[in-house]
Amino acid sequence: MKNPVIQTFPLSSPWQTLDPFLFSVYHLDHFPKGNGAMGPDASLLKGRNLGSDFDPSTDWRMYHGQTIPGFPYHPHRGFETITIVNRGFCDHSDSLGAAGRFGQGDVQWMTAGRGVQHSEMFPLLNDDDENPLELFQIWLNLPKVGKFVDPHFKMLWNEDIPVLKEENATVKVVAGAYKNTTPIAPAPDSWAANPENEVAIWNIHVDANSEYVLPKANSSVNRVLYFYDGDEIHIADKKINPNFGIVLDPSEEVHIKSGGQKAHFMLLQGKPIGEPVAKYGPFVMNTQEEIQKAMEEYRLTQFGGWPWPHPDNVHEKDRGRFALYPDGKLIEK
């Protein structure tokens, strides 16, 4: 049997990715009890660089938040964000007038296209116990023809996302068909919207002391498996420790033998877009000239401005999961 492992690499923050993905970040925060105002019931006066708190040695971080952890308003253009919140909650607000609170397995798919501002805050709703947060954010590129599509906001609710339970594993199918399991449709202008691009985002959990077989892809795609939690695994004759990425040969099945702990993976796969990528912070275009134009347009227009009262906008504490769309449609969960 051919060894399907092409390369392994240690995971940094953000994770390294291959075309068509731009990068992925994994947040695991053991937030303390809330203080009644959706912030942490802990002192922020010492040891935290508020506004830029990313210290990986701490149990939890404030990120760019000052009183509530998260990311106050910031722009995006030219790509998409797929945000998977396995634990905890995220409060979304954007310049389109869309808003939402999602978590507990929900996924938000947002196409920035020609430009949007949004905030992503992590309200600590529980004042009686800790508020753990586990979140993945994946940046998926748009091809040149899609860089200026209209922004789009879509919620994939946890109750609707297919979860396939196999003999030794559970697979959450966020994007891309898994065997005979069809996922919820992605955003309409996404690179993932065309099945020929074989974009897949699968959160895979393999039982301890067992074997799982990852099926091969149908075409020549870039395929990376991120081993983000567990103890050692074995693929073919190779031992791999947690916090490693694994570049795989898409034409081969992958037999994964887990160790004494449950093994947790994120798989990102897709046909390369194969175009030049120019990046500057939250702008992703094809040339540096286009980046300069995007920055100038943002300075002039703010991509529609900010219709919310605060840059770190959060919703009412007792509000449940919901999505308010730009056309005024409201879904409560």
UniProtKB/TrEMBL annotation:
It comes from the Bacteria. InterPro entries: Pirin (IPR012093), Pirin_C_dom (IPR008778), Pirin_N_dom (IPR003829), RmlC-like_jellyroll (IPR014710), RmlC_Cupin_sf (IPR011051). Signal peptide: none annotated. Residues 202-304 form the Pirin C-terminal domain. Residues 62-140 form the Pirin N-terminal domain. Pfam families: Pirin (PF02678), Pirin_C (PF05726). CDD domains: cupin_pirin_C (cd02247), cupin_pirin_N (cd02909). Belongs to the pirin family. This is Pirin-like C-terminal cupin domain-containing protein. The lineage of its organism: Bacteria, Pseudomonadati, Bacteroidota, Flavobacteriia, Flavobacteriales.
